[in-house]
Amino acid sequence: MDYLEISVTVWTDEAERAAGVLLGAGFAGVVMGEQRFDDLAEPWIEEPGRPAGPMPERPAEVTLRVYEARTEAPPAVDDASSSPEAEVETVARIRGALGGLGHRISTRVIAEESWAESWKRFWDVQHVGDHLVIKPSWKEYTASAGDLVIELDPKQAFGTGTHATTRLCLQALERLVRPGDGVFDVGCGSGILAIAAVRLQAGRAAGVDTDPVAVAAARENADHNGVADRLDFAVGTASNLAGRADIVVANILAEILIELAADLAALAGRDLILSGIIDRKAPEVRAAFAAQGLALAEELREDGWVAQHFRRA
Ligand SMILES: C[S@@+](CC[C@H](N)C(=O)[O-])C[C@H]1O[C@@H](n2cnc3c(N)ncnc32)[C@H](O)[C@@H]1O
Questions:
Q1: For residue 1, is pLDDT > 80?
Q2: Domain shared by 57 and 102, yes or no
Q3: Residues 6+ positions from 129 with CB-CB distance below 8 Å
Q4: Binning pLDDT at 50, 70 and 90, where does residue 306 land?
Q5: What domain range is 141 assigned to?
Q6: Which of 88, 87, 104, 89 is nearest to 14 (CA)?
Q7: Which of 61, 224, 235, 254 could form a Cys-Cys staple with 281, CB 3.0–4.6 A?
Q8: What is the CA(30)–ligand 1 centre distance, in A?
Q9: What value does the mean pLDDT take over residues 188-204?
Q10: Is residue 287 domain-shared with residue 177, that is, in the same domain?
């Protein structure tokens, strides 16, 4: 099967809103690409809607990517999903949903085989916190004493450990997991956080994700790391989890975290780690969870992203 990749370039401060719109438009996941720093050698080009003035010092734009599966068969006359017209329609639908957001939209078709390859080019062994090592399954790595190596193939799911939002959660888990803890991972993606939690000696972890592709990848990764007997992954969201876990971790976007605030707070027995929050949204998320009776213990920051750790009093 081939995939249509639709890339939407937005200003950094609009990224989260645009990602929310794309999720709302029916895409199961949004890949938030590396932020592009403006090349200092290039003049700062004013674009419509941007204030005039000196070139900003912080990252200016970020590319969001969404994917749509195309049918395997060659395009048939009545097969709207694989025709060029369908691509035009998809772009028009996205443009309409985004309103004024996004100043560049482009598409390309990716064959399934090269899809996997494009991940592989950008992803190397990641060291996170004091002990965690996230190793792509196709890379060689010789573990040092004290390393907790997690071998991952995210397939099409989010969660390689390269994104700041994931790294902040991993750092928090490394400090907070106690032996035997129960953990819920809401928006599990590749399963990276739940797998890390059990490697950090949690007793069990359960992960949910609205994207079935992510859940399949998470299950495979759990198997591959030899921890499948302590992990459960299912399609769903916070309301599909029952009871309480010592630790709840959710790396989703601020808007979705706020929407899920009551459910997430109800699930958290001791610690709640929230991530995927762009800096300026942090107060809104903090307020939404304070209203659920949770006290903010700490905020962690990296690359304009914030993770919040709440502790039940
Ligand atoms: C930023 S990724 C995080 C993946 C992984 N946990 C990590 O930290 O790298 C967010 C994930 O949340 C999922 N998601 C989005 N909205 C959701 C919701 N309402 N409930 C559960 N999962 C959701 C997406 O499909 C995506 O896999």
A1: no
A2: yes
A3: 170, 171, 174, 175
A4: very high
A5: 124-311
A6: 104
A7: 254
A8: 9
A9: 96
A10: yes
208 Cβ below 6 A of ligand 1? yes
The count of C-alpha atoms lying within 13 angstroms of the C-alpha of 159, restricted to the half-sphere facing its C-beta, is 36
Domains: count for the chain: 2
Predicted confidence at residue 113, as pLDDT, reads 59
Q: Does 266 contact ligand 1 (Cβ within 6 A)?
A: no
pLDDT band at 61 (very low <50, low <70, confident <90, very high): confident
pLDDT value at 36 more than 70: no
- My answer on whether 112 and 161 are in the same domain is no
